[in-house]
Design brief:
Two copies of one chain form a homodimer. The first copy, chain A, is of the alpha/beta class. Chain A is 42% helix and 19% strand. The first copy, chain A, has helices spanning 5-22, 35-38, 42-53, 89-105, 107-124, 126-137, 141-168, 214-222, 237-252, 272-276, 290-299, 323-335, 364-378, 382-389, 395-404, 440-443, 460-474, 486-499, 538-542, and strands at residues 65-69, 84-87, 173-180, 183-196, 199-203, 227-230, 260-262, 281-287, 304-308, 314-317, 347-351, 355-357, 360-362, 409-412, 416-417, 427-428, 431-436, 451-457, 479-482, 503-505, 545-553. In chain A, the strands form six sheets. In chain A, strands 14-17-18-11-10-19-20 form a seven-stranded mixed sheet. Chain A has a five-stranded parallel sheet with strand order 7-6-5-8-9, sandwiched between helices.
Chain lengths: 555, 555
């Protein structure tokens, strides 16, 4: 009676596994929020579905529900009023542990089929998810549709593909025949079964709940670990919808729906630490602060812990043969989602003697002014601006802008803007400062939000050395470099190997340093303090399961 | 000028990768210590080479050598007197770090070729290595040749194969072309480079320096991490020879020989903790005590730590249709290397009401007596006995036998034997006790050495439940079960999935519960407290390296 989701999605899964090998462009989930692709009514229906959630209880199937909890407010200025189930984890966790065996014994293919079906259904609900992401994270709508919807789905499927391949690259049964000279060979029948590490805990982040959450969620699920989704208390809805869809598919496939469960808490009564140290929890995925990430790494010895934490991303500008393209590209990167991406450049290193460009030599101040002017121009049309910068997710981020302005000479002031649709939206444009490289205090820590520094260095060598040291000490997820000389690019590449950071070279077109494409680009390397894992590679899945062997003499 | 070792070994490496997938029998290193295979003079030359080492300095190429160190004594009763280089790690570590870039930039194939060449040369020196293993660990000669020589080489090549595959399953360069509707596609050229985590530290164990050491050593080396080999101070020589061979091959291949280095310490002045916490160390492999393994896991946050620790291995006897075969098989397993294997069964659970066999019903006492008598008979010929049990590696193990005898009713006393060749060899036969299942204190911790317990339980269900609890709490590397009923085997199999232990069913022939074959059997699962890793799987290699990407617009 249960659906064969593996058969249904096998071709997609095979293509996904192949894409992770070739790393060519591939995506099964179209990123355009277009009626031609998703249906003429999809946009309206998605918005209506989102609105119908507001001020209602959100129903999920989980043992141990005891009341309601919810405190979300849209960065665009209104309360969501959604009430999520409050769960007694002392009832939920044993129930999930009890449901583990059936999920484990289903095997990798069945699990991969269920995961692919969940992702396909999420894809069909991308408009609804986009509104949910927009009104919890503050992302603008198109970005919420892409980064929160289709690109997150890509990253989820990528994790499923890695997990399926890791579990199936070796046989599940074999006949082992060892020659014994003139005597009969030794013959053994062996069976190899995948077991999960236990329950998985996915701790969601407030800004990218799905994009940063799906890799861990689906990597754990496909490898047999039932998953507790613990969203940020201010960004619950996108993950609640995800859990709802997962439960629907699990049930149809004949499994207990609470194999994917949602535990919602509040800022006042957080439950993550308690959950993370439970002996049943064998895998933890976390995106968020360095402080809490390190706490998890150092205190949850029973679990495999994957973290993405803070970092300081650098751009090294040595020279360019396309000043306009460079400025436009950087202006977009600094503006996108008001710098609230873990991939937004913060520190832009420029030699104090200036740089060579296709428009002649530019002094350091001229470079700084060109970038500031690029951002000002890009954001001059308020409708276009707000469709890119979105809103500030947390009040603390907005407050940080004012404090940061004291750290250097302001070359572009942060403005508070009105949003054309949402009165009371928390909209801020980027702040750009000039500082001297000697003023390390100013630029050597993450200043999360729309805050960037243009830093005067002794030379490009000095710029590279400072970026390298920062990445090794504070972490970095992205680097960019602008140089017309292959020798400079090579030296930046060498530094990247040392610092363990990926580099985008001379971006002047429609690819941005803060964006990575699933199946092709790795997000973070796991080789510097910004993250201990990469999205997605074999290391991200291989430790989520184990193999148990039984062997006997062949009959 | 440098040799193309990858081309030379490519076929072997391809076969090795294939074997890890099919898990059929395969080995490139013949296990028979035979003149027909290794050359008529190999045995004599190997012994002579070993003897020529005694009471001499052992030369290796490493920066920072400051004097000599060495305190090895053969368990067969004589001092080795070998003096190893004493190294100043504050000079060695920076030098190894400096040599890292060339090894990293050589790429996976070159590194795999070098590793395969090292293993081939070690294979040719298997007789010499066998004597070195014998006279440090106490293993009998044939076992030292196999477990210390050829089987260790198998495990090393297995790790190389996993590492090579993990690094090369994805492309190193790609052209990424993203369609943009009617506009030109976005085109990027991307390059992906493997970087190591840093330096690797392999901490050797006194009993299986090569078998337990090669997987970590070669997994780290093939993934680009220069390796510091830190042997147990009483078991240095087998790893010193390994480092010598590695340095010879590295040099021929054009690399700094100290990319594999040996740091020898003493019991009085151990250096492992200091080394393990150095920031340059990114990977640690350890086999040994639970206490020290947990210390490494909890205190070396900068490194990926792989540990194999203590455990309590169980056999569950429910019934058998081949009593003689069962007894002979168990007698060998309990005797081999005097129970000094991490895979030796310690706890044998038998229902107190006895079992059904092909020779009728046997009471609990009759089962215990049959096993004791099997061991007694197997060891009745002293020459045959000493060729299996070897010598006791450490005095503390010999002392433990006497203390353990007080824990239950002795059914087989441990004897002190004379060795036919070596006066003063520390030879002990197995001690077997009877205890009641209620006496958990007696059998619920690892009693390393030739000590086993036959435990009276309420039923086979009780036996399985106790073995399961023990494995989950104290760890286990091996389980065996004897049952004529598939239902019982299935229940043991279910328990194995829960406890995370591999099971051998009804072993009555020439395969033993304490032996695993590389490329087919996994050694440990990593799913219970006995080990956090398995030899060898993808998880064992995937976290030893990272990928750094560079991307630029396609020209």
């Amino acid at each position: 009676m249960t659906q064969d989701f593996y058969a249904k999605h096998r071709e997609t899964l095979d293509k996904a596994m192949e894409a992770t090998r070739t790393r060519e462009f591939w995506s099964p989930y179209p990123e355009a929020p277009s009626g031609k692709i998703y249906g003429e009514n999809a946009a309206a229906e998605g918005e209506a579905a989102f609105k119908a959630r507001l001020h209602q209880p959100f129903k999920l199937e989980m043992p141990g529900i005891e009341g309601e909890v919810g405190e979300e407010r849209s960065p665009y200025g209104f309360d969501l009023g959604i009430r999520y189930p409050k769960v007694n984890v002392n009832q939920l966790v044993p129930a999930m542990k009890h449901s583990l065996a059936a999920w484990r014994d289903a095997g990798p293919e069945v699990r991969a089929g269920v995961c692919a079906e969940i992702l396909e259904r999420l894809n069909k609900r991308s408009f609804e998810v986009a509104h949910a992401v927009m009104h919890t994270t503050g992302q603008a709508f198109v970005m919420a549709f892409q980064a929160g919807g289709t690109h997150a789905q890509d990253r989820g499927l990528e994790a499923v593909a890695y997990g399926l391949e890791a579990q199936t690259r070796t046989v599940s049964e074999t006949r082992w025949v060892k020659p014994q000279g003139k005597r009969d060979p030794l013959e053994m029948d062996k069976r190899f079964r995948v077991i999960p590490r236990g329950l998985a805990l996915m701790v969601g982040v407030s800004t990218f709940p799905t994009w940063n959450g799906y890799p861990g969620l689906f990597a754990s699920l496909v490898t047999g670990n039932p998953v507790i989704v613990k969203p940020h208390p201010h960004t619950v809805l996108p993950l609640a919808i995800t859990v709802e869809v997962a439960q629907e598919v699990l049930k149809e496939a004949g499994f207990d729906p609470w194999i994917v469960s949602l535990v919602t808490d509040t800022r006042e009564a957080p439950v993550t630490k308690e959950l993370a140290q439970r002996e049943e929890v064998g895998v933890i995925d976390f995106t968020g602060s360095t402080e809490f990430g390190e706490w998890l790494e150092r205190n949850c010895h029973q679990a495999q812990v994957y973290t993405e934490k803070a970092g300081v991303n650098s751009i090294v500008i040595d020279s360019t043969d396309n000043l306009k393209g460079m400025v436009q590209n950087l202006a977009f990167s600094l503006s996108l989602y008001s710098g609230q991406m873990c991939t937004t450049p913060q520190d832009i290193f420029v030699p104090r003697d200036g740089i060579e460009t296709d428009q002649g030599h530019l002094s350091f101040d001229e470079v700084a002014d060109a970038i500031a002017e690029g951002v000002r121009k890009f954001l001059s049309d308020n409708d276009r601006a707000t469709a890119v910068i979105g809103a500030i997710q947390a009040e603390v981020t907005a407050e940080r802008i004012g404090e940061a302005a004291k750290l250097g000479e302001v070359v572009l002031e942060s403005e508070t803007r009105e949003h054309p649709q949402f009165e009371g939206a928390r909209v801020r444009t980027p702040l750009i400062l000039k500082v001297d490289a000697a003023d390390e205090q100013a630029y050597s820590r993450e200043l999360f939000g729309p805050i960037s520094m243009i830093i005067a260095t002794d030379s490009t060598e000095d710029s590279i050395a400072r970026a390298t040291r920062l990445a090794k000490e504070k972490g970095a997820i992205t680097w960019g470099v602008y140089a017309t000389d292959e020798g400079v690019l090579a030296r930046m590449g060498e530094a990247a190997l040392e610092a363990g950071v990926s580099v985008s070279e001379n971006l002047t077109g429609g690819v941005y340093v803060n964006q990575t494409a699933a199946f092709s680009d790795y997000h973070a390397t796991g080789a510097n303090p910004a993250a201990n894992a990469s999205l997605c590679d074999s290391a991200f899945v291989a430790n989520r399961f184990r193999v148990v062997e039984t062997r006997r003499h062949a009959a």
